[in-house]
Amino acid sequence: MEKMHQCVLCIGSNYHAEMHMNIAEKVLRHYFPCIRWGKTIQTAPEGSIHHAPYLNRAALFETTWDPDTLRSFFKDIEKACGRTPASKQTGVIPLDIDLLMIDGVVCKPADMQKKYVHLALHGLEI
Fold this sequence. Notes:
alpha+beta, 6-stranded antiparallel sheet, nucleotide-binding, Hppk, EC 2.7.6.3
């Protein structure tokens, strides 16, 4: 039997944010039916020339997929929503999906320290 990994992710968008977040949530729910979502948090942009606010949302889920497979899958979803290297340079982020933690190991320490991540995870037991 394959090992189940416990994962934490965070999604964010500052461009047609509600639409892109809904797309991401639908796709992720399809592949990870037991995904549990935290609340959606609106934040001001940090270090971006694009001034639209972000919507952010965290989730917990289990999967047999390894971290590299997850990250690749997340990148595919981001690209399908219009994320490109050029959009990132301009600060327009249709969708960002980050694997924050897997099996208790923090993958993105700086992100895990951000206040909005803690707010988005509020009510979810890690």
